Amino acid sequence: MAGQMPIGKWHKYIGDPAVADAIMDRLVYSSMKIELKGESLRKTRGKPGG
């Protein structure tokens, strides 16, 4: 869920700002943030095995 969603959208997705902040504090505190841009390689390369 959160791993593929931009952090800026978590509040709206989770629905409760206090809960979203608590989750973000725990996840983001000791993690590395990497934001990828562009289309998914799965979309550009097609289905595996096909």
Give structural notes.
44% of the residues lie in helices and 0% in strands. With 50 residues, the chain is mostly helical. The chain has helices at residues 10-14, 17-28, 41-45. The protein contains three helices and no strands. The two termini are 27 Å apart. It has a domain at 1-30. This is IstB-like ATP binding protein. GO terms for molecular function: ATP binding. InterPro entries: IstB_ATP-bd, P-loop_NTPase.
**What structural class should be given to the helix and strand makeup?**
mainly alpha
- Helical residue percent? 40-55%
Along the chain, the helix and strand elements come as HHH
Strand proportion, as a percent range, falls in: under 5%
Describe the main β-sheet briefly.
none
**Overall morphology:** elongated
Radius of gyration: 15 Å
Terminal Cα span:
27 Å
Count of helix runs: 3
Number of strands: 0
Low-confidence stretches: none
Mean pLDDT: 76
